[in-house]
Amino acid sequence: MSVKLINRQVGDVTVIDVAGRITLGEGSSTLRDALRDLVKENHKNILLNLREVTYIDSSGIGELVSAFTTITNQGGHLKLLGLTHRVKDLLQITKLYTVFDVHEDEAHAVRSFA
Amino acid sequence: MDSRSRTINLVLDSTLDSVDKAEREALDLARESGFGEEDLDRIGMSVRECMVNAVVHGNRYNSHKKVHLSLSRTPERLTVRIVDQGEGFNPDAVPDPLEGDNLLRHSGRGIFLMKAFMDDLQVRLGPSGTEVILVKNVVAEK
């Protein structure tokens, strides 16, 4: 499996459950397309649940950063939920951990958009 | 050669499938060397990033160009050598991805991650391509 995305709506927040690998090629382009569609549809509050992400490379990190910048510039919010040790490690090394609003608990994350 | 030493040489197409294959082969050899899970993650990612550079930026997916992969393990270290047929690059000219506006750039973190995750990284520009050598030392458990 490359990557699988499931969108669900929790109040005003669109939660995307991501599972699999976000790497150059199908994984990162699938995530890019999904986030682009949500921006087009004017979704402002997006929570990316990365709990089931087994692997992310620099291309995947690039997609997260691009999405964050695009959504923020359009007045929206992109937040991250449930980082695995591996993803957290990568975001810390690349100094992006403090750029993103990162949450462990979904209910708490959803409330933080209010 | 020490019986605990082994070298694998592969010639790979300039495709993303080759990136996956290189990562798998490197991880198999790294496991034989006894690296722990965290080191395996870091070795796998470094090989992946280096292969992506070779396939995408070096050979530009050109089906006539190949990537030469050499994986070598000794009791002391794992050495990965990746040679493409591209025009080459200067690793010192790659902007620091942690600095200022670079932090939010889409790309440019591959070399940085390789340097962070491996014990040594060397780039040599040859007449017919770029050679990158990555080294991870085996550290005996205390």
Task: Give a quick rundown of the structure.
Chain A is of the alpha/beta class and 114 residues long. Chain A has helices spanning 26-40, 58-73, 85-93, 106-111, and strands at residues 3-10, 13-22, 45-56, 77-81, 101-103. Helix content of chain A is 40%, strand content 33%.
Give an overview in words:
The complex is a heterodimer of chains A (114) and B (142). With 114 residues, chain A is of the alpha/beta class. In chain A, strands 1-2-3-4-5 form a five-stranded mixed sheet. In chain A, helix 1 packs parallel to helix 2. The mean pLDDT of chain A is 94. Chain B is of the alpha+beta class. Chain B has a single domain, classed as Heat Shock Protein 90 (2-Layer Sandwich), CATH 3.30.565.10. Chain B has a five-stranded antiparallel sheet, covered by helices on one side. In chain B, a hairpin with a 2-residue loop joins strand 4 and strand 5. In chain B, helix 1 runs antiparallel to helix 2 and helix 2 packs antiparallel against helix 3. Chains A and B meet through helix 2 and helix 3 of A and helix 2 and helix 3 of B.
Keywords, please?
heterodimer, A: 114 residues, alpha/beta, Transcription Regulator spoIIAA, 40% helix, globular, B: 142 residues, alpha+beta, Heat Shock Protein 90, 5-stranded antiparallel sheet, 3 helices, 33% helix
Indicate the topology.
The complex is a heterodimer of chains A (114) and B (142).
Chain A (H helix, E strand, L loop, with lengths): L2 E8 L2 E10 L3 H15 L4 E12 L1 H16 L3 E5 L3 H9 L7 E3 L2 H6 L3
Parallel strand pairs in A: 2-3, 3-4, 4-5
Antiparallel strand pairs in A: 1-2
Chain B lengths: L5 E8 L2 H17 L4 H22 L7 E8 L3 E7 L26 H8 L2 E7 L2 E9 L5
Antiparallel strand pairs in B: 1-2, 2-3, 3-5, 4-5
